[in-house]
Design goal:
It contains 15 helices and 13 strands. With 563 residues, the chain is of the alpha/beta class. It has a seven-stranded mixed beta sheet with strand order 1-7-6-5-4-2-3, with helices on both faces. Strands 8-9-13-12 form a four-stranded antiparallel beta sheet, covered by helices on one side. The protein is globular, with a radius of gyration of 26 Å. The protein starts with 22 loop residues before the first helix and ends in a 6-residue tail after the last helix. The chain binds pyridoxal-5'-phosphate (PLP). Pyridoxal-5'-phosphate binds next to α8. The site of pyridoxal-5'-phosphate has 15 residues, from α8.
């Protein structure tokens, strides 16, 4: 552990000489640096991280330096096979940092590149690194007041700010609840998956409550709950574009993931309200043996970015007294844009809402959040322990699926101060407007077919050669159902190949998924999926991406590349 010796050193790699873990070295890594020399060294390490990584991020504009082909992944994995831990230190801190910057980072994915438009992960405002460092340095554990103090108070305030953005209750409501230890407007959690699980956990417990001698589902379990409430099955309804975390919730909560029922979507990829109504009637069938635990509306589906008709869903949930959850993991921050917040109209009527910090709040991994309209509903999942989270305490861990967790709220709170809603609005509006321009560009190119139009900032498309083109004698015709099936099969192979080769070339990254869309009923269509959230992604960047896809396509058509 002499590697942590706080003396001034060069940040180039050292030849390790006699590194030992002894008591002396141990103390040196825990005490705060007191000398000027030690401070300089710490600064130098931070500088090395910030600038070393910055250089990497600008030098490697593409997905990775090396191909992410299976071969290179194999090579990489062969380098990481040892499973032993050395008894004595192997390296000094400066060398570990150099290794990470020079050997590891080039094989990671440069999600900050403007040409990386494939997933919901993107460039971060530079100050996120500073804020994350403060969170690590303070190392508060927000599970309880005794390890977080003011951070718990700040967290309650941030929860109120985002709650207000969603539900827009009046000032008196927020004054009553912002610092009220007995009520909760929501909670921070690790990610969107756990946020969705929390929302459905609350919905389940709020439904299967105490009655007669039954003491509630959380205590007695599903079987006793079904018996006490005279039911045989709980279900959740969501469009078939729902995120798979909802299926996980079905498994974790014991209702069975096949009871998370997919409802058909309309031609705009929003939940089909007629199908939903029909499904509700079918499930209720007069016997009440099946109960609908929640209906989930999506504000920004993972694959197409579509937004369900939240107002109509709220009305149906009110009519049937069903918990209305909105999965706004992706689209939630659209509420900060005055220009586009109407796209999420109806969200304010939800019982619960998921929003991810690490998506369109541009926070570093990972931060999920779930909000509740009723400040007392989280009581349905309250837990206590002798040493922590005692009844009546201010400990935020009392009503949370997580145990220990970091102070992500400090990052969000600081960022809201730095950006304001207007700063976020600029980002959101850029994404939506560039996505629209990109859609127009795709439609203007004869080689491409738009599959799903962007409602927010996600769109899908594919290559579609004109009828006079043939590939090995095959013509891309759609006349009869059989021709359509064969053509789509070929097109799927082409899209898959182009996406793979573009990814491997390492300059740009567009993701790929398989959709069922109204244009081709009953068929699986492979599409390029483009997520535009990086403010540096301009229409010119996107044109280059299309040019590259056309180039690869031409190589396939000309027989230079096998399908
Ligand atoms: C709509 C939606 N909900 C939930 C999630 C899950 O979020 P996480 O990956 O943070 O668990 C995602 C992730 O992409 C999503 O798009």
């Amino acid at each position: 552990m002499t590697n942590c010796n706080l003396s001034t050193r060069s940040v180039s790699r050292h030849k390790p000489t006699h590194l030992v873990a002894d008591q002396d070295a141990l103390m040196r890594i825990f005490i705060q640096p007191e000398s000027d020399a030690a401070r300089l060294t710490l600064l130098k390490y931070m500088e090395q991280i910030l600038f070393g990584l910055h250089e990497f991020l600008t030098r490697h504009v593409g997905v990775t330096q090396a191909k992410i082909s299976l071969d290179s992944l194999k090579e990489l994995s062969e380098r990481f096979t040892s499973s032993t831990i050395g008894k004595h230190p192997e390296k000094m801190l400066a060398d570990v940092i150099t290794d990470l910057i020079e050997d590891i980072a080039p094989h990671a994915v440069n999600v900050a590149s403007p040409y990386f438009v494939g997933h919901m992960t993107s460039a971060l405002p530079f100050f996120m690194i500073h804020l994350k460092t403060i969170v690590a340095a303070l190392n508060q554990n927000v599970i309880k007041l005794e390890t977080s103090k003011v951070v718990s108070v700040i967290e309650k305030q941030v929860l109120a700010k985002i709650h207000r953005l969603i539900f827009q209750e009046n000032e008196a409501f927020y004054q009553e609840h912002v610092q009220n230890p007995q009520t909760s407007l929501g909670c921070f959690i690790e990610d969107g998956t756990l946020a969705n699980i929390t929302a459905l956990w609350v919905a389940r417990n709020s439904l299967l409550t105490v009655r007669d001698r039954f003491e509630g589902i959380e205590k007695e379990g599903l079987s006793a709950a079904y018996q006490a409430h005279g039911i045989e099955r709980l279900v959740v309804l969501v469009s078939r574009l729902g995120h798979y975390s909802l299926k996980k919730a079905g498994g974790v909560l014991g209702i069975g993931n096949r009871n998370v029922i997919a409802v058909e979507v309309d031609e705009k990829n929003r939940i089909d309200m007629n199908c939903l109504r029909q499904k509700i009637v079918e499930l209720r069938d007069g016997s009440e043996k099946t109960r609908i635990m929640a209906i989930v509306g999506i504000a920004g589906t993972t694959e197409t970015g579509s937004v369900d008709p939240l107002g109509q869903l709220a009305a149906i949930c009110a009519e049937y007294r069903i918990h209305f959850h909105v999965d706004a993991a992706w689209g939630g921050p659209t509420l900060m844009s005055e220009k586009y917040r109407h796209l999420l109209a109806g969200i304010e009527q939800a019982d619960s809402v998921t929003i991810d910090g690490h998506k369109q709040f541009y926070m570093p991994m990972t931060c999920g959040m779930v909000y509740f309209k009723d400040p007392r509903i989280l009581d349905a999942i309250e837990y206590h322990a002798g040493y922590v989270n005692r009844p009546g305490s201010v400990d935020l861990g009392r009503k949370s699926l997580s145990g220990s967790r970091e102070a992500s709220s400090l990052i969000l709170d600081s960022t809201l101060k730095i950006m304001g809603t207007q700063g976020y609005a600029l980002l959101i509006e850029h994404g939506i407007e560039i996505a629209r321009q990109f859609a127009a560009e795709i439609q203007g190119r004869p080689l491409f077919e738009m599959i799903t139009q962007p409602e927010l900032n996600i769109l899908t498309y594919r290559l579609f050669p004109p009828a006079n083109i043939s590939l090995g004698g095959f013509r891309f015709e759609q006349g009869t159902p059989e021709e359509s099936l064969n053509t789509n099969c070929q097109l799927n192979a082409i899209t898959r190949k182009v996406q793979q080769l573009q990814r491997e070339a390492g300059k740009s990254f567009v993701s790929r998924t398989t959709l069922r869309v109204h244009q081709y009923p009953g068929q699986d269509i492979v599409v390029f999926r483009c997520v535009i959230m990086n403010p540096m992604t301009t229409i010119d960047v996107l044109r280059e991406i299309l040019d590259e896809q056309e180039e690869i396509y031409n190589q396939i058509i000309n027989g230079q590349v096998d399908l």
